[in-house]
Each structure stands twice: as structure tokens, then as C-alpha cells.
Amino acid sequence: MSQSGFYASGGGGGTPLTSLTGNVGGVVSSALGNINIDGVGVINTVGNPPSHTVFIELLNGTNGQLLIGGGVDAAWASLTSSDGSITFTPGPNSLDLVAVGGGGGGVTSITGDIGTAQTGVLYLTGGSSGAVFDSTTSAITQSFNYLNLPDTDTLGNGIISFINIPYFSNYPGYATSADNLFIGANSGNTTLTVGFSYYNVGIGNSVFSAITSGATRNVAVGYQACSSMPTGDENVAVGYQALEDLNGGQSNVAIGSTALASLTTGNGNIAIGQSAGGSYTGAESDNIILYDGGGALDNGVIRIGTQSVQSSCYIAGIKGVTTANTEIVTIDSSTGQLGSTPAILTNTGQPAFSVFLSSAQTGVTGGGTVYRIPFDLYTLNQGGYYDVSTHIFTAPVTGFYQFNCAIILTSATTGTTLQLVVDNLTHAYTYNGIYQNPINNTAAGNFLGVNMSIAIPVTAGDQITFTVEVSGGTNTVGLYGLPFPDGAGLTYASGYLIC
Questions:
Q1: CATH assignment, 352-497
Q2: What beta strand segments (E) does 273-411 contain?
Q3: What is the distance between the alpha carbons of residues 450 and 301, in angstroms, rounded to a whole number?
Q4: How many angstroms separate the CA atoms of 32 and 196, rounded?
Q5: 3-state secondary structure of 30
Q6: What's the chain's Rg over C-alpha atoms?
Q7: Is residue 472 within 8 Å of residue 414, measured between CB atoms?
Q8: Is 293 within 8 Å of 279 (Cβ atoms)?
Q9: For 124-136, how does the pLDDT look when each residue is reduced to its tens digit (9 = 90+)?
Q10: Cβ atoms of residues 99 and 107 within 8 Å
């Protein structure tokens, strides 16, 4: 066919034109007209260099539609716009949609797609706010088999937010490696720069929100846990506001709501339980606290339980175990503090007394009168159980007690009995320590020494007194006594709890 010719084929059997060859004279000039081809099927064009162009008018579409696909899968899709938004109602194939407006912005809204979900890759690139999904009027579901975000940076990249509040980020901590993970509203410092803060994991609102450069290997789980910490290493906080005020400490472990919440710069503390270590407000360090508030300025202290709450303690692995360097464990009954003392025990809590007669007593017995010896001064009165005004010892606990007594009588020429009386308020038990009949006592002043020693069972509350009886004459017999210190070794008595 020549450049300026016209060719039409038809008629006969009605076969349409299926192949057009020739036109070796060059491209048909627009001034000379067009080659119009009207038919169905496939149109193949082959031309010589440098180029060739075929314009095809598709007559079965309408304005505002796109033909997507080819062959039997081709379909028309409606494309409309209003107020800067583009609405695309697709057929069975996919569409790559790019729009650039006067301000250079990208696609800001895609509405519709009421059909089935399309397969393939969807790329959304927006402005400074990233890709925003707005479902204020109806539900929207996003399903991802693969979601790929860049590392978080100070420009706002690599952050998942809800209502413009960051909830997920992974600020690179060492060089360009994504070594941190922060999950929760405002968790992690959103202005954190790439530096030497790495291997940190924070889960919960405001967790690690103050973290800067120099925080490594920290874990915090719970609302505002470690929220004030700019730097610090190897801290673990689990619970509401656990380690909330920590500001540079390291190697602390806080488990429980508000555990170590006020600690600021301390190191190496372990606190377990609600408000455990709550008294620590500064640099307290190296403490182990279990369900106790601790004490201000504690350092190197172990506290287990609360004195006013726990009333029993069971610890396995102690009974039947022999240690090489034996000491005796002691306990402060007021604070519960444990201590130790050498195996030779000095027990300042054991009831014991040592008393003596500080002045001579004359004419107190001799005619059978039973006289209570008035020991009125003491050199030992541990626990205060001996009353020097009534001359009575009251046993504080039930057990076996050892009692001793020695007296010097004056003008004693007849039989003498030294007695120990135990009075339990309902019945008095008398123990005769010794009986002596000094008929041949002719020494000047007739001084006579008498003593006794006895171990007896005593019930808590029993009252013990010492008495002497001289019979066979008149009340002319007395007791020898002197002030301290000489009198302490003349007429005296003592007693103590054995077991």
C-alpha cells in the first residue's frame, strides 16, 4: 500500500481485514490522513526504524474509564475524582496508581474497593505523617503477610503510631543495627539518636521515654517502668512504675508494682513484691529485699518479709547440717534482725539474780520464828525479776532453776533450819536446805554459817523466797550483814534458769 492510498476490505464472505503490510515509503503524515482499522481480534504492527506509531481508538468504553489487563481478562474500570480524591472501582486486575498534584503530594486517599481483596504489593508513600489509615466512618481491616518498615530515626521513619502517638519503634543503638525494641504509647525516646544505647527492650506506656545515649541491656515491662532513666546498664523492671525514678543506676532488679520506684542512683539491688524497697530514695545499693519496704540508707542489707505481717518462718536445708565454724544465731525480738555470737553464749535475756544482806539483823528468830531473809541489794538482776523491796523472785518462764543461799547467824546455840519457799499463790512448797544443831558452838558471838544449793522445777509466775528458822530458845538470834562490797560474800542468795 502506498503512502497516500486508501484501502478497504470487506464483502464477499464478510471477512474483515486481518493483516496490513507494506507502507515502506515511511510514516504516514498526519497531513495526509490516518489509517483507520475497524475490526476485532489482535492487531500486530511491524515497522522499520527509527519508529512507528499506531493509534487505536477503543469505542466500547465510556469517558473516565480505563481498560486494565489484556486478552480475555481485560476489563473496564471506572476512575472518578472529586475534591482532590481519586475513586477507583476496579475490575479483576491490578492498577499501579501514582498521582502528583500541584504541591507535589502523593495519593492521600483511596476509597472503595468493595470487592474481594487484591493480591500483590501495595506501596503507600505519604508525607511527614507517613501512611495514615482513616476509618472514622466505617471499619477498615488491613491484612499483611509481610510488613517492611525502615529502622526508626529522628525524622519519624520506622514508627507505628495510633492517633499520632508512637507505639512501636526500634531505634538503632549501635552503629546502624536495630538493637532496641520499644512497644507502648510514648515508649522509648522519640528523639533518640543513633548512638551507644542498645539491647534495650521496653514494653508499656512511657517505658524508657527518657533514654539517651549510654543505656544498654535494660528490660522494662509495665506502665512508666524506667521512665526517668536516661542512662544505665543491665536493669530489669517488671511492674507498674517499677524503677520509675532510676537515673543512671545499674544491675537493679525490681519485680512488683512500684518496686524500687523512688531509687535514683543505686546499684545492684534486688527487690521483689509490691512496693518492695519503697524506702530507697537515693544511692542505696547491694540490698536484697523481699516483700519489705527496706530502710533508708540501707547498703548490703537482706530483708525478708514484714515484721508486723509474717509470724512464722520455715527454711529448708538447715536442720541436721553441721558447719565447720560454729556460732550461735541470735535475733533481735524488736526488729527481727539476725546476728550471731560465738558458741560460748552470753545470754543477756536469761533470768538470773544475785543478792545480799547489806546490814545486820538482830533478834529475828530463835524461838521457832520463820524469818524471811531481807536480801536488799543485788549485784545481778537480769530481767528485773527479783524485787528488793519484797525480797521475792518471780519466775518469768517455766523450767528448771538453780538456787543457792548462804547465811551467817549470830548468837545461835540451838538447832537451825535454812529453807527455800516456792509459793505458787495456791500452795507453798518448802525445801529444807539444811538442819544443824550447834550445841557445842562456843565461839565468840556464837557465829554459825549455814548454806544450801538446790535445782527444782518452777512454773512461770511462781514466787521464791528464802527463810531461816531457829528453835529451842528465844528470839535472840540474828543475821550477819555488811554494806557492799564486804557484805556481798557473807549473807547472800542467787538463782538462774537452767533450761
A1: 2.60.120.40
A2: 288-290, 302-304, 327-331, 338-342, 352-356, 361-365, 370-372, 377-382, 386-387, 392-394, 399-410
A3: 56
A4: 74
A5: helix
A6: 53
A7: yes
A8: yes
A9: 554 454 555 554 5
A10: yes
Distance CA 224, CA 78 (A): 51
Kindly report which listed range (216-230, 372-386, 394-408, 413-427) carries the lowest average pLDDT score: 413-427
Residues 418-463: tens digit of each pLDDT: 676 766 655 566 666 555 555 445 454 567 778 888 889 999 999 9
C-alpha distance from residue 351 to each of 7, 26, 314, 419, 496 (Å):
136, 130, 28, 22, 6
Separation between Cα atoms, residue 496 and residue 397, nearest integer Å: 11
pLDDT digits (tens, 9 = 90+) for 171-183: 776 655 568 899 9
How far apart, in whole angstroms, are the C-alpha atoms of residue 188 and residue 179?
A: 13
Q: How many whole angstroms separate alpha carbon 491 and alpha carbon 359?
A: 10
Angle at 237 (CA atoms; ends 271, 290), nearest 5 degrees: 15
How many alpha carbons fall within 13 Å on the CB side of residue 330? Answer: 14
Break the chain into its structural domains and give their ranges.
352-497
Report, as an integer, the average pLDDT of 467-474.
Answer: 83
**C-alpha grid cell, residue 183:** 512497644
Cα–Cα distances in Å, from 222 out to 197, 252, 270, 290, 325? 20, 16, 17, 20, 46
pLDDT value of position 87: 60
- Complete DSSP assignment for 435-466: EE--TT--SGGG-EEEEEEEEEEE-TT-EEEE
CB neighbour burial string for 413-428, b if at least 16 within 10 angstroms, e if fewer:
bbebbbbbbbeeeeee
Length of the chain: 499
Place of cell 506506656: 205
